[in-house]
Design brief:
Strand order of the largest sheet: 3-2-1-4
Structural class: alpha+beta
Order of helices and strands: HHHEEHEHEHH
Strand content: 5-15%
Low-confidence stretches: none
Shape: globular
Number of strands: 4
Length: 181
Amino acid sequence: MWERDVVGALAELKTFETDLVNQEAQKARTILRDFFSGSLGYANASGCALTMHGSLVYNDPKNLDADVTIVSDKLPSGVMRHFWKLQLELEDLWPWKGLTDMSFAIIEEMNKDDLHYDDLMLSLVLSSGLIYPENRQQVAIHEDYKNMALKILEENPALTTGVILALNSAIAVRKARRAST
């Protein structure tokens, strides 16, 4: 039953990816792709999926911030340092008022102590879009992590409830923003 709720929420969120076209959001995605182009090989070699979420995925110029999540099963400190350094550079480069927010979703750390953090991160792993959706290695890495996230949900009903709530909250935000345009 929980699978139907999660899959249904993800399918509803997916409709927001294509219902609008926005030139500012497209420009922001291009800046992000150009910015991370030098790190794509490093991300692939490190087993990291470079994902984006929020306004970048849903063509929402109202709060055009650079929401990036680096998804990995484990995150060696060198990888974390590399991407934290990039966040500082991205903050200087980002031309919109929105913040840049680079976070790390580390699969092996989930399902342990902080359920609120874990449900948010798992919802991002499942709903985020790839910065490089045409890169087969990125697609494969991201799909592996999505499957790992679903396995965690299968084993933890409390996290599953939190993920469903987080996804439904994202849907409500998208609906409200679409209604106000």
